[in-house]
Write a structure and sequence with these properties.
The chain is of the alpha+beta class. It is built from two helices and six strands. The strands form two sheets. The chain has a four-stranded mixed sheet with strand order 3-6-4-5, covered by helices on one side.
Length: 137
């Protein structure tokens, strides 16, 4: 897979402000598009009301389960789109990534991430949602 996906931070662009790359280059192949995942467990229950880290952990568990269903893992991710409902959670999200991305991406090559702050998500209690695109082997 590593030969199909190349993460980079090209000259002429500022150093990324966090744990992401500016560019993911992927050779042709099969892609997996994962709908935005929210902090709801397999039983349909919201996890971590008013607890950003608990919600983030559940969102990434859900993303991991979706990836695994296609025989993939985080190393296959080529793009994240993150939605937050509170701009004050941006530092919490950065800290979560700093703590967890080295486990998800042990090679230190982090996929691009677009971060959007929006008015609300499907439920008032949901603090974040993350969608992903992965390149399959």
């Amino acid at each position: 897979m590593a030969s199909r996906i190349k993460m980079s931070n090209p000259k002429g662009l500022a150093r990324p402000l966090g744990t992401y790359s500016h560019v993911a280059r992927v050779k042709p192949g099969e892609f997996l598009f994962i709908a935005g995942q929210v902090p709801v467990n397999a039983g349909g229950r919201l996890v971590g009301v008013d607890d950003f880290d608990a919600q983030a952990r559940q969102v990434f568990r859900n993303l991991g389960a979706a990836l695994k269903s296609a025989g993939a893992g985080y190393r296959n991710v080529v793009q994240f789109t993150t939605y937050l409902v509170n701009s004050r959670d941006i530092p919490k999200f950065r800290k979560f990534r700093e703590r967890n991305y080295p486990k998800f991406f042990p090679d230190g090559k982090y996929p691009p991430n677009t971060l959007l702050v929006i008015d609300r998500l499907a439920s008032e209690d949901i603090l974040l949602e993350i969608a992903a695109i992965a390149a399959l082997d």
